Amino acid sequence: MFKYLGVLLVCFLGSVVMAQETKKAEFSIVDESNTVTILIDKKDAKVVSIAAAIFANDVLKVTGKKPVVGSKAQLTSSAIIAGTIGKNTMIDKLIASGKLDISELQNQWERYAIHSIENLSKGIDKALVIVGSDRRGTAYGILELSRKIGVSPWEWWADVTPEKKEVLSVSIHATVSKSPSVKYRGVFLNDEDWGLQRWAALNFEQETGDIGPKTYAKVFELLLRLRANTIWPAMHSSTKPFYSYPENKFVADDYAIVIGTSHAEPMLSNINTEWKHDKMGEYRYDTNSETIKNLFRKRVKETAKLEGIYTTGMRGEHDSPMIVGEDDTDAQVHLLERVITDQRAILKKETKKNPTAIPQAFVPYKEVLNYYQSGLKLPEDITLVWTDDNYGYMRQLSTPKEQTRPGGAGVYYHTSYWGRPHDYLWLNSTNPVLMWEEMSKAYEFQSRDIWILNCGDIKPHEYNMELFLDMAWDMDNFEKSASVKTHMQSWAAREFGKETAAEITEVLFENNRLAYIRRPEFMAWSQVEPVTKEGETELTQYHYGDEVSERIKSYETIIERTESLYADIADHRKDAFYQLVYYPIIGASKLNQKWLYSFKNKFTAKQGRQSANAFGALSKEAYHRIEKETTYYNTKLQNGKWNHIMTMAPRFLPVFAQPATSTLQTDQKAKLGLALEGYQMEVNDEIINSYADVLPIFNSYTNSTYFIDVFVEGEGAVDWVAIPKVDWIKLSEDKGTLHFEHLEKRIWVSIDWTKVPKGENKKEAPLGHDFQLIPPSFKVNSAIDFRSEGKTTTIGVSVYNPEFDALENYKGFVEDKGYVSINAENYTRKQAGNEADWQLFEGIGYTNKVIAALPRNATPNVNLEAIKANSPVLEYDFYTFNFGEVAVNLQAVPTHAPHAGIGVRCAVAIDDASPVLVDFQTIGRSDEWKENVLKNASVKSIKQIVNKAGKHTLKIWMVDPGVLIDQVLIDLGGWKKSYAFPKETAKK
């Protein structure tokens, strides 16, 4: 060891005049003959030595060689010097001599600079100098080197084993970091009962039997690696209060992590577990304020010298409203104002500081938002922390006046939630692009002081945690919706290699799309508070290609792709892939399939299909696959490192159970059964002219296809053959054998339009005919004979194949079976308005694309006369074969108005009709809101007139900024019940 730090400093200072800063240099950390030394100063903050030790261990994991860390070190040819302005003697001398420019760092929040300096001293030829504006800035600068040498922030928490290298260097650009986009950035550990707390108590921290200082140290390390600085600790009754373990607060301070608390935990106190009714009485401020204030005083005394954010105001115990004597909003508002006044008096007395200099937050969550909206007077220096509606949609944001408040504003956002209408505690099912959309909106409305993500147990929320915190660190990197896919692909490349990054991203995006349509945890159509049994699915099995089967197929595809990717992932990254990609996708897929196959089981059992038993077995198989993977996660992965972290049934809700299934038993001889798209019941040969013996009409303009299911009724095997009566009817299969291994087959029927006789050539469609009762001159009829066991069943086929001059070169949407279906992104034309326009967002919505009214700060235009002239407009050309009153159904992303004066409105008209306002805003936690968040869709319908058959144009004008249009369905009376709108009816 170099014996005297003073000698080193003399050499260092004596040579400083020779130092030269390079704008770009290759800096060696480990080579064949040398391992870098890391020099820090003992008087610097503890987090600096912690970060230096983390980096040294990262180098060891990569190279097998560990740098020495300390204020004394071996004299080597290169060194890393890391310290905070005013806390590191070497760096301060460089600054004083004018050789290290800190003008961009001085008095800044969490910034760092990295410079390569040559000829630093007689013993150090080259040094990498990391200087921080404050203690966290220095730590972030040191850990930036970990990123540069290829160590993932998830190295420990997701077992992302670093690539091994014998020689290690980094390419250094003279770097000065920007100030973080958001001042306080962090997570809320919540609903930890089924994962994090059990894992800590039974596995990782058995000596404490709880989430204690050892667990928090690992959490805090992760937060530092993710460039976060704040935590709201776990607070359920399964976990002892954070401050009941004295070491917790000191570990937090060592890691420079700021402690805050949730909306229900005022003044850093955990009411849920710290309030003792037998000793403290009722938790009511109107009758028991002195006891409550005593708890507040105790906590402020305990934390006065530590970094913290004090939550002001008050709610009831564990996410419940505050108890007051008078059920009157004005009384509640005045009582809450009194609470805040008393809290600030306590802060002033116990900290000896002016409350305006102490970080405080006010969280208008649930009923507290109503109090705030009802006129509650809040001190201007307190940060307003706006919340989402628990399902990812911000309920309110700062008005222009509120944006000028000294205390600023923040965001509390959920990717995990326990509550009505239904929990989502198991998997991360929040669409990352939706999170981007809402966070970028919050940032635009100046919520830039506190961002907190409710991430549940951390696992499996890893990606969304990193995205959330990366946005909070530098929002400039996330200007467009496409930035999320770019970010995810970079993340996947870092974790699993560039070769597979694009495909991993595509699989994850598809998984997110499916979860957006319906979260896995919502697939039982049940609700909570109170807990209800499974409900009837809204997915149709006999219209529009069979929504249940299509969803099954979509999940089969991503399961196959995920398993294929898993097989090709390098061995040292397989465990990471399992945690970050494989388990979340397989879990979501199998929970879906468990319910989807149970829906198939019940549906086919009613039709007497023997395949019902097979569907029931597949449902059970999906359930057992979840069991198998969860057991592997807990007991086999990393030799049991994560045992107890993953629970496949949080709160043991009905959605996580194995659904009951129907079993068919019969001794009847096997026979062929048929079921057609468009009909709930099977074809019944006993009924003459059965309503289910004709397929829906095939439309040449939309190139329709429909299915026929052939299946076994009874016991045994059945041979079948299908014979089209004309050559223009095409079948995906025309013969086969059904038996115990293959009890049914779906046959797709399509049309070879080049061979179909043309209908009459006319300029326009006839006026107002029923599409299902097309005049003979426009319709061509034929049939398919299904023969089995000497019996023939005939299925009618009707095609609509006229020649209309108006449709010859037409590009637009065409009526099919009495409706026109449109994906909003496929507009025919659009026109910008006064400094506003409709723009595409990718990665959100039912088709992964929506159209957004931007900019978000545009002035709403509610003047119906001015809308046509001034507002941005989307136009969709469509063609109908019917006319009369129609229903225009608009599906939007169910966002909320950011504040009073801005709504969630657009205006709609067909052709030259006057615009009609459409308002997607919901009130509170209404039934409409519940339906919207369960579907991630808000559907509104207005009446319009289609005055003739033929060409028309649907127009959608911007009224309020921020509206996100997903899909449109113009119903001329033919739309049947379905969960999602039918596929687009664009002219083929």
UniProtKB/TrEMBL annotation:
One of its GO terms (biological process) is carbohydrate metabolic process. GO terms for molecular function: hydrolase activity. Residues 1-19 form the signal peptide. It comes from the Bacteria. Keywords: Hydrolase, Signal. Residues 812-984 form the Gylcosyl hydrolase 115 C-terminal domain. The keyword Lipoprotein does not apply. This is Glycosyl hydrolase family 115.
